[in-house]
């Protein structure tokens, strides 16, 4: 089975192959996501919590503005208790990611819920035929074992398991996880092909919380200190996808897919100490989700005005069942003293889209549209609860809404490999179900995006650059540290992005990207907090055969620059520059690889926040905002031995 990427229809679409992924250390999902142009992935709450994402001027929190898909399985979770669009990618085994298909913006009809800043799709496959063992030992108690089996020539048929654990680089950072991913592709004859993808994942992790900047300066805390000991959680995810490619009829191709996902999360955090309650502000959140979905895609060519027109049609539906709670616990003994959320949610999204591309000489015109119908049912077990009575507890409500989105693009070919693009698209994110009232028209957050750009495609050099803008109606940002949603009205993101992939000489690979963005509230022209105004990334790799040893030497580095991010109260975060490096030597069936992250041992802050807190219950309460941070990892080295059989 040959799986091809969708042809690029805008300046900012890019495919990142395995050769680029191999240039720098990729030992977890954060390392994989950081290669996406302009994307920042922050892992500030331990090894098991979903990463906080920043892209194109959006603080996407844990996924609300970036649509993520792995092997056809959606990752974003609707109406999640911790963050809208919660996208936990920690189940991914990075060795299985063969390529990333990145569609920044919302200019394509196939992009659905949460595709506001963009969409990232990961294609899975095993690199080599046979059995591969990879064992890793590293600093801070890091231990990891990955076993991959690829029985035949098809890289899309594989099974892989990962076991990992570590003590972390400071207090309250220990973790343990296990992940299994397996996929089989079948040729059933007569042009009928099938694919089955399944997996299971579980993790238990600790979280260090935050450090107050004034506590660090006064010597009450160290840079890598933890705050409160009960933070952390457990996560599990089980998933299955079955897909069928129907026999081709001329230019027509049809794919049908059905998928199911079961997920559970239990998370404990305390970011404010004793600011709200003398017993402690610790929150335990649970979220159990079940997802069932169907998807159909049909592509074909038709003739219009004696010109070939490429059509892409899609239909789908997704039903999510969610059970979620939120309770406050005492810091002294961990017992609960208040219930804040106890809800059951059923959320159904049914969609359809169409997209057509008409070439006319050097010009090409693209037009598409998408419609999503959303139905929501909520049972709130705590609504109207009165301790004086046993009856009258709980409240049910439902809502319905439709989002209509237009997509359009113009392309002009300057040469066979160089073109100019103009793109427009309507994106959206679905609402948080518990915020809706009975009979309300489900209020999607509407996004209008536009882009002007250019791209050049070549075997040795590919380049793209674009000017972009996104207007968001009725926007909000959620400060997850204190659980407060701030509605801002209309907001505007603008910026410039550029990316380059080069393979100038045999064995030499380079991927460079930079994004400059701005995010403001339209009415006041005030800057939105937390977004990343400047993100630059460089991945460089070099391979050279060593004939005298019969071996292959590989060297690589990954460099990241993140400019100061605006924070609340007119403050800014610090600039971050990180350098990762790897060196590998392979001879026959054996390979030895040294990975070093944060090579310069930079003392950097993975997350920085400004809000009020009280960590010492003996001090007077105060609402004066203070700076807080979560520490990024110091220099960490690990050694991996690979055996290929």
UniProtKB/TrEMBL annotation:
Ranges for domain TonB-dependent receptor-like beta-barrel: 232-599
Keyword NAD annotated: no
Membrane topology: Multi-pass membrane protein
Highest taxon above the source species: Bacteria
Keyword tRNA-binding: no
Coiled coil: none
Subcellular location: Cell outer membrane
Domain TonB-dependent receptor plug, first and last residues per copy: 13-119
One Pfam short name: Plug
Sorted UniProt keywords: Cell outer membrane, Membrane, Receptor, Signal, TonB box, Transmembrane, Transmembrane beta strand, Transport
InterPro entries referenced in this protein's UniProt entry, alphabetically: Beta-barrel_TonB, Beta-barrel_TonB_sf, Plug_dom, Plug_dom_sf, TonB-dep_rcpt-like
Sequence similarity: Belongs to the TonB-dependent receptor family.
Protein name: TonB-dependent receptor
Source species taxonomy: Bacteria, Pseudomonadati, Myxococcota, Myxococcia, Myxococcales
